[in-house]
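We treat protein structure as text, and this decision shapes the records that our systems exchange. Such a record has a labelled line for the sequence and another for the backbone structure tokens. The record that follows is passed on verbatim for readers who wish to inspect the format:
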Amino acid sequence: MTRRTAAALLTITLAGAIAGCASGPSPDLYQTFGGQPGLVSLVDDFMDGMMRDPDLRPYFVNANRPHIKAELVAQFCATLGGPCEYKGMDMKMAHARYGIGDHEFNALVQDLQDAMDLHRIPYRAQNRFLAMLAPYRDDVVHLSNKPPAR
């Protein structure tokens, strides 16, 4: 595990404890991510990273990636305080059949951080965003289901 991954795990683990103290979504945070154009570009790079990641590629290789990217942009926009409304599936339902474990979840967090670094999102804003996403972890990780063939 890299130091960066360890830091990501610590951020996700502590996010629940600090969520009450951290500020939530705001138009300023949304603008820090570049507004809608910035989120589209971020999600493009995030998906590219997941497709290069041998642990995550099997989950996306046969998926409707344009649809997933559009859903992620809407979800990220709404989470950050932008003028969007996420109307997609709830996270538990969307991920239940995939057998996503901690290893895959941590790889996803790492790929998201790499994309945010590529876009020069300040670490403080990254940490705020990760703290906002942290509550979804339990809805995404489902060890009892079979993962896609690798």
